[in-house]
Design a protein that fits this description.
71% helix
Amino acid sequence: MTVQEKTKEKGIDKSLLCLIVILAIVGLIFLYSTSAYNGRVKFHDSAYYFKKQLFATSLGFMGMYLVSCMDYHLLVRFAPLFYLLSLFLSLAVLLFGDEYNGSKRWLSIGPLSFQPSEFAKVAVILLLTFILIKTDEKKQGIGYMIRTMAILLPIVGLVGTNNLSTAIIILGIGVVLIFVSNPRYLPFIGIGVAGIVFVAIFLSMASYRLERLEIWRNPEAYEKGFQTIQGLYAIGSGGVFGKGLGSSLQKLGFVPEAQNDMIFSIICEETGLAGSWFLIFLFALLIWRLMVIATHARDLCGELLAVGIMGHIAMQVILNIAVVTNTIPNTGITLPFVSYGGTSVLFLLGEMGIALAVSRD
């Protein structure tokens, strides 16, 4: 091993790597506990969801290692191509996608199926980094910000048709990256107002989105508020230390598809306030390490990549917990590394690989 290779190896953020491994293991444990009943009832295998998630996580770690060994500048160089591919895949979902629970979010290729919206998040981080590192600071006025955000509207429109939560995250990533790269704060007031108007118009375009607002305000009055109410029962019944791992009652069909978006409520029921705060603490440490990597990045490219990944993780964690606790309307968003979803964990670990690659330099 050469001196240069040793230097690179020492440059990996080992704290971030340890946090990723811990979150992946904790997520698999919680997933097995939460999904065992549904797996046994639907597939006669209590480990059905666990085995699929374990396989996706294993692939994700291999992908993370490969990406962490790459030059992240190369990924950014191909960002426009990745963005065009995400547009194509998102359009393919609308035309040929598989429908599940009333939403088209999955695209099947042979025996495999995946969610292109997860790839879109990574593509947007890479594209905005590609654009922002080529921008002259003098040109970063309100007009430039609006034009940059407008580039995201095609993917936001395609993804948001069946997946509003991901569309909101993509817009959020755009705001975070432009905010970090721009020294002027006042124009963000205009962007904020424009964003609120855009979301309001988007919500009004479909009656089921407006219905979600009504369910959020008064879940007891609607049949579709059942999931939210049962999730809150699970959180409240957990107490300080919970009922014990595997001892949840709400996962026995009361919280539909508990292993997906509502998994945090079962975690609260089984491990209580202590377990839920421990998980939140792990996410906080992960976000902090990403912030440290961004602060010490060698160049603006690495800084923006780390900030984009940090913003994505932070927003997704906050939105999921807010939905589960009925702080905001139900948007169907997963909890990173914990909720069931092979595509999600694959691309999350891919993003972690990019962050590790930035930390190498």
